[in-house]
Design brief:
Blueprint: H1 9-15, H2 22-38, H3 40-50, E1 116-117, E2 124-140, E3 154-167, E4 171-183, E5 195-208, E6 219-226, E7 248-257, E8 260-271, E9 280-281, E10 285-299, E11 303-320, E12 325-340, E13 349-363, E14 367-370, E15 373-376, E16 380-394, E17 403-411, E18 446-457, E19 461-471, E20 479-480, E21 486-488, E22 497-509, E23 514-525, H4 527-531, E24 538-548
């Protein structure tokens, strides 16, 4: 591993695997330079206004934040009159550049490809976009010593391109391609690391009940391959963190009425494979449900109070738990209430995000595995639950505008592995980076808390200091990874404490197109991991550059 400033550039290229990825790396540098140059005038204006100070109370920052739930839509508002600033949603199908129909509002370098009229008809246009992301990371004692180390880390490359075609206001098609490449990982690619080239999304929207310009249609029917991401992505996510994103094949119906948006969907997950255009529908799993969001306090320039209510159904032929292996059908009902400022705003006061869910269903008949080999089990009921909170207070009249926060969370674990009933909560489509950027422990049979401090520096730089503390919720259930597979069985230890994970992250919004992320984390194993080796201290470092257009 080479973090020393005295290391030569050529040495870094060789050891980090950049030599094998030189064309992609050079392309990223050129694109980043172009984007930075294009935003120079805007950045200079921002610098003159800020005079090297953090944003004033209630001031809005350029709305390009770290990967996460979509922020506020682009458009006039806190930015005043004139063209709205460039804004890219986490789900790119939610981008709306229809305002660029007016040539006078085109100010960004990429605006000409965001609204390309065709057919000579009103509101017939093509919008083109994409993403390049280069993510270097290094583990020291990955899986606490269970996976071979990479002496100088490895490079994860993501490339995405999409075309959004609007045939007036009633019909729309959206096609998005993805490519994920990994270079230099000694243990080989993980399932979420590699997908040479494939279709990430390809769907048709049919809109009914059109409303005055600028308002959403009363009803939208979406058919095809599509991404879904609800709430904070705890249960249903597009998997933005890992190298390869997640999508579903199926149908979605969306209703917009008053301050409600309600989705009904029936889908099957898409199985990610490593080759060219070989991703396939996962026929062994079915995912359906409804998700509704109501804006309780629509104040887009200050804060947004929202209520989420949902039902999620999930069926798969093979579920693997500490208790055993077998088919399962789960039904999840839950609710979430949140009050948070739009992405990019620093607002004095409290913010919060509370969520709870309950699962019921059936598991089995299942098989257990012991020294005597597979043993048939019975068929039991699923009764599981989860609760999470995220509360913080921002002092935006204090230097560096600190936000002091606390996250807490609990997901239930199984009470008795010899009983056919199952109490392990399962997340059907989780965010790949569930507890920071380390992709080790997942959200099953776990409880803990995370104090954190965020500092806001000039030039749109933020620094986060936080620390996770993890325990097993049930001593009779095992320890799981992010996708939900058991990593350590329950019988090896009676200890509850899993470990401590302090970390620091620096995030820089260079301009609306370019984001930079640098971080470090250190995981110190607790009694449970020490009783079930390997249990070495885990260290993790990352450096990421992302460009969107």
């Amino acid at each position: 591993m080479c973090f020393s400033r005295e290391c030569r550039v050529q040495t870094r290229r060789n050891r980090w695997g950049l030599r094998r990825s030189r064309p992609a790396f050079v392309l990223l540098v050129l694109i980043t330079f172009a984007a930075v140059f294009n935003a120079g005038a805007e950045a200079q204006d921002s610098t003159d206004q800020q005079t090297a100070q953090a944003p004033a109370a209630g001031q809005t920052l350029p709305p390009a934040g770290p990967p996460g739930p979509p922020g506020a839509p682009g458009g006039p508002g806190p930015f005043g009159a004139g063209p709205p600033p460039v804004h890219y949603e986490m789900l790119r199908q939610n981008d709306d550049f229809s305002y660029l129909k007016d040539p006078a509002r085109r100010t960004d370098l990429f605006d000409p490809i965001k609204y390309i009229p065709f057919g000579g008809k009103d509101n017939w246009y093509l919008s083109i976009g994409g993403e390049v992301r280069q993510w270097w990371e290094r583990y020291d004692n990955e899986d606490w010593g269970g996976v071979p180390d990479d002496s100088n880390g490895y490079l994860l490359q993501r490339y995405m391109f999409h075309a959004d075609v609007h045939f007036g206001e009633r019909v729309r098609t959206f096609v998005q391609f993805k490519s994920g490449i990994v270079s230099g990982r000694a243990a080989g690619p993980r399932p979420v690391d590699k997908d040479k080239l494939d279709v990430n999304q390809a769907f048709v929207d049919l809109n009914f009940g059109l409303k005055p310009s600028g308002e959403k249609p009363a009803f939208t029917l979406r058919l095809g391959r599509q991404e879904m991401h609800y709430g904070t992505g705890r249960l249903v996510s597009a998997r933005e963190g890992p190298n390869v994103r997640n999508s579903f094949d199926g149908v979605l119906a969306r209703i917009n009425k008053s301050n409600w948006q309600v989705d009904f969907f029936a889908t099957k997950p898409v199985q990610t494979n490593f080759g060219f255009f070989d991703d396939s529908t996962e026929h062994a799993q079915t995912f359906w449900g409804t998700y509704g969001v109501k804006t309780l306090d629509p104040r887009p320039s200050i804060a947004q109070t929202k209520l989420d209510v949902y039902y999620l159904g999930f069926r798969r032929k093979v579920g693997i738990f500490n208790q055993g292996l077998g088919p399962e059908t789960r039904h999840t009902v839950g609710a979430r209430i949140s009050d948070q400022p739009p992405m990019g705003m620093v607002v004095e006061g409290w913010d919060y995000d509370f969520e709870g869910a309950f699962q019921f269903g059936e598991f089995g008949p299942y098989l257990t595995f012991g020294p005597a080999g597979p043993t048939p089990g019975g068929k039991g009921n699923i009764r599981a639950w989860t609760i999470s909170t995220d509360t913080g207070y921002t002092f935006n009249r204090v230097k560096l505008q600190p936000r002091l926060g606390l996250n807490t969370g609990v997901t239930s674990g199984d009470k008795d592995p010899t009983d056919p009933d199952l109490q392990t909560f399962f997340t059907p489509s989780p965010n790949g980076h569930y507890f920071g950027h380390i992709q080790q422990n997942g959200p099953l049979n776990i409880q803990g808390f995370r104090p954190n401090v965020v500092l806001h520096f000039p030039r749109l730089v933020s620094v986060t200091f936080d620390c996770f503390f993890f325990w097993r919720q049930s001593l009779h259930d095992g320890f799981y990874n992010v996708p939900g597979f058991p990593l350590r069985p329950s019988g090896v230890s009676k200890a509850r404490y899993i470990g401590t994970q302090p970390q620091v992250e620096v995030f820089w919004v260079v301009n609306p197109h370019v984001m930079v992320d640098v971080g470090y984390a250190h995981f110190v194993p607790g009694g449970f991991l020490r009783d079930s080796p390997p249990s070495q201290n885990l260290r993790y470092a990352l450096a990421m550059v992302q460009f969107r257009f």
